Amino acid sequence: MKNDLQELRRSAVVSTFGPGSVVDFRSGGGAVSGIAAGLEEWDQSFPPAGLAHPQVIRETRLQKKLGVKGFRTPPVILERGKDDDPDLRRLVAVRFPKWLQCPNCDVIKPERRWKNDPGEAYRYCPKCTEASHGDSKVFVIPVRFVMACKNGHIDEFPWDWWVGHKPGCKTAKRENSDRHRGLRLRSESPGLAGLILSCPECGARRSMDGVFSKKTWEHGPKCRGLRPWLANGNENCGNEQYAVQRGASNLYFPVTESALSIPPWSDRLQEVLGDWWSSLTNLDDHSKLEEYIELLAKGDLESILRELEMSPAELAEAIRARLTSFGQLRTDDLRPAEYRQFVTEPGRSRTPDIDFETRREAVPSEISPWISRVVRAVRLREVRAIKGFTRINPPGDPDSSEVARLSKEALEWLPAIEVRGEGVFLALNEEKLAKWERRDDVINRVSECEDRHLADWRERYGDDAAPQQQITPRYMLCHTLSHALMRQLTLECGYSSASLQERIYAGCEEEQMAGLLVYTATPDADGTLGGLERQGKAGRIEGILQRSLEAIEWCSSDPLCITDMMGALNSYSHSVCHACCLVPETSCEAFNSFLDRALLTGDGSGSGLGFFEDMLRRS
Q1: What does each C-alpha distance from 376 to 124, 164, 206, 365 come to in angstroms?
Q2: Exposed, middle or buried, 610 (CB in 10 Å: 0-12/13-18/19+)?
Q3: Which of 43, 84, 239, 615 is 20 to 30 Å from the Cα of 376, by its Cα?
Q4: 529: phi > 0 → left, psi -120 to 50 → alpha, else beta; which?
């Protein structure tokens, strides 16, 4: 594919359409399916390579957690003047699958056996095009089935194996390749049982019934370890593989990590220093840092000191403090530090913070028995990085062998985007929460979800494996409340449901946490207009909270929903459906799992199961 296909949004390149994903394009009127190339191709096709590229972002805490020195945003082509040469740099996609089908005659065969025009990515059927008397080309389309394994490998569907050629078939032996008749995939009746694969050469026929059954592939071809997004990056595998539809959602699950930029990492110090930061922090003896800065202050560093309004001694002290904090930075969980920033009084910094600004609101008396903190996040910056992906199953353990790599060798950078926006933070009343989460009915209800989750986790990773996310009553409470608020906020302030995102703070071991942040999650102007954070003001937030609970107290699908007759078993949830609590999966950090609206509003029996049940009684 040497021609331009189409543009992708930056946010899509670090999520749905990251390296290793199958993307559908259009080329000259024809459909083209390609797999996004790995990170080495970023360096080669969109220089300069690595962190020398100008489109770089940094987030200190996330860099330490992921073991990289920085992040690259999906590259953007530079606009040129009328007399300048165009920017020819492009990201690369590799054609996949290579088997294509004519929509008129139903023939399927590899792309090299279809007609093409020089320099064009599309392919067309010469026989059907000729039959149309040249009115228009009959473009062939990518086949609908591919193979994938749980280790992230992907391969062509074994069409010849599936049809089961008769002995001596020339098509099976690839004889007379110039006149290769191919196979035929034709729908003779509804459903997979009516989709028939046949060989015109030998007459072999087989329906596609059972193509998605695991039992079908127990004795089928094993995975060859193909990684077409990495040049010469195939590896040994031999595991079972499964048939997947080319556009299926389980063909690509991005494994992402994110972090909010919080003090002291969010101030302007490192941004203003720029390339000087590495020079100043890589000294062998930091006790001489002040002398070194004084020497540089006589030259290029003078303007930077003036901008920071610091003396050489103050800058040296700020750098040493930053390095000390970096050494003490916890990377197992980045959220406790964020939670502390929301629940403690904001301090004052010498340098203005351009990435994190919060304003605490007085908690209205109407909600103070249940809510202990209300904070308006006037200014937020989130960095989201993609570190790999999984196929077949959603990501579980981020360090599992199931997580496929984005590059053949580990690089010092990963793809990421930054999101600047706003939000509302709520913390629950810890005293009331501690009493509520010790109730037997609460513990039993949450334990059912936790036991199902643990059983599935151990089936996937082994009996000794333990999930990273512990499912507790406070986690399910905060998570469900977040969904209720997101759904209500889309009505209150006009945001689309997909433009909001949640961040759950729930922990009861080393550090007690019980809070949630609902914030804008799009990298465009929709997230910076101030309409969301203003909903956290006293006089508004209590009404929004009340209405969000009332909206889910009764569901249009009750009594089926509240009695848990509509939930999927693999969602590890109770009493939720699309009519009451579910949100777009891009807005939920847990794929719409671990939810239970009865923990908020009760199950209708008046037992006190719901944390906010007495609030609803008072209304």
Answers
A1: 57, 64, 62, 18
A2: buried
A3: 615
A4: alpha
Rounded to 5 degrees, φ, ψ at 317 are -65, -40
DSSP SS3 for 557: coil
CB 20 within 8 Å of CB 36: yes
Domain boundaries, the chain: 421-496+506-618
**206 contacts 164 by C-beta, under 8 angstroms:** yes
Peptide bond into 142 cis (omega under 30): no
**97, 33 in Cβ contact below 8 A?**
yes
Q: Is 164 left (phi over 0), alpha (psi -120 to 50) or beta?
A: left
Beta strands 141-142; 205-207: pairing state: unpaired
CB-based contacts of 480: which residues, under 8 Å, 6+ apart?
576, 581, 595, 596, 597, 599, 600
d(CA 412, CA 62): 13
Residues 6+ apart with CB under 8 A from 438: none
Q: Is the CB of residue 431 less than 8 Å from the CB of residue 88?
A: no
Place of tokens 């923990």: 599
Q: 34: which 2 tokens?
A: 């390609």
Question: What is the maximum alpha-carbon separation in the chain?
Answer: 86
Cβ neighbours of residue 435 closer than 8 Å, sequence gap 6 or more: none
Strand bridging mode 357-361 / 253-260? unpaired
Cα-based angle 74, 75, 81 (whole degrees, multiple of 5): 155
Q: Write out pLDDT tens, residues 444-464.
A: 999 999 999 898 888 888 888
CA–CA gap between residue 424 and residue 517 (Å, rounded): 6
- List, for residues 515-550, the tens digit of each pLDDT value: 999 998 666 544 556 689 999 999 999 999 999 999
| 70-72/413-428 β-pairing | parallel
Q: Residue written as tokens 């110090």? A: 269
Are 514 and 427 in contact by the 8 Å Cβ rule? The answer is yes
Walk along the chain (619 residues) in steps of 10 and give the mean pLDDT of each run. Answer: 68 88 89 92 88 87 91 80 70 92 94 89 91 83 95 95 90 60 90 94 93 91 94 89 93 93 76 71 76 80 81 82 73 87 70 80 94 93 94 82 91 92 95 95 94 88 80 96 95 84 87 92 58 91 96 92 75 90 89 93 89 86
Instruction: Find all residues with CB under 8 Å of 485, minimum gap 6, and list them.
Output: 424, 426, 516, 518, 544, 545, 548
Q: What distance in Å separates the CA atoms of residue 270 and residue 319, rounded to the nearest whole number?
A: 9
The separation between the first and the last C-alpha atoms of the chain, rounded to the nearest angstrom, is 63
Instruction: Look at residue 217 and give its three-state secondary structure.
Output: helix
- Pairing of the two strands 70-72 and 183-187: unpaired
Report CA-CA distances (Å) from 593 to 9, 243, 515, 570, 585: 27, 26, 18, 8, 10
